[in-house]
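Posting this for the archive.
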Amino acid sequence: MASKIGGVDGSSPSTAIGAGRAVQRPQDAATGAAQNFDGSSRENVEITGTARQLATLEQAIRDLPAINDARVAQISNAIEQGTYSVNSQHIADQLVQIEKALKDLPNGSGSDADPDPDA
């Protein structure tokens, strides 16, 4: 029993795969532009203002210390002295602001993507 895979069986001569098709040049994965033989792209890549802003913010975060030792000491002292208080209204307001900002993201990845049916 001969098995046929992709229209070619072992008993008949086959033609070269892809025969008669035009040769396609490789494309740049990021831009989709066809590349020259030396690998360079024929189109220019433009960085958006948002991408530049994100890169700047990322660098600023990298430059910050992982832990703000002065702030930790200040809060630790306040807790030890019993003077540390939590402003629940401020925390709630900040959470609402974060939620609104997430909903306004241009990629639509806000919390509406997975709505809570019980809410």
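The longest helix spans residues 88-103. Helices lie at 49-63, 69-81, 88-103.
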